[in-house]
């Protein structure tokens, strides 16, 4: 049996992080954006339109696990 160590890094093939926000009162959501200011602006507009003031912010990134070559460190 061979032991392999793995390294985890941001996956360059899956683009930039996606920023999004959702209202915790009515579950309306901004949709994902590469620009974090877009969901922030959506929150302010949503608050002005509905009076809802609580939001859930998410940032989605992708990782890629890569096997490390060479002998297992002690
Ligand atoms: Zn709302």
TrEMBL record:
<dbReference type="Pfam" id="PF25232">
    <property type="entry name" value="DUF7848"/>
</dbReference>
<dbReference type="InterPro" id="IPR057170">
    <property type="entry name" value="DUF7848"/>
</dbReference>
<feature type="domain" description="DUF7848">
    <location>
        <begin position="1"/>
        <end position="69"/>
    </location>
</feature>
<protein>
    <recommendedName>
        <fullName>DUF7848 domain-containing protein</fullName>
    </recommendedName>
</protein>
């Amino acid at each position: 049996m061979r032991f392999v160590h793995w390294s985890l890094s941001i996956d360059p093939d899956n683009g930039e992080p996606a920023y999004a926000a959702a209202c915790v009162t009515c579950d309306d959501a901004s949709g994902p954006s590469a620009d974090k200011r877009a969901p922030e602006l959506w929150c302010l507009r949503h608050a002005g339109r509905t009076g809802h003031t609580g939001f859930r912010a998410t940032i989605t990134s992708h990782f890629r696990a890569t096997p490390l070559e060479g002998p297992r460190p002690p």
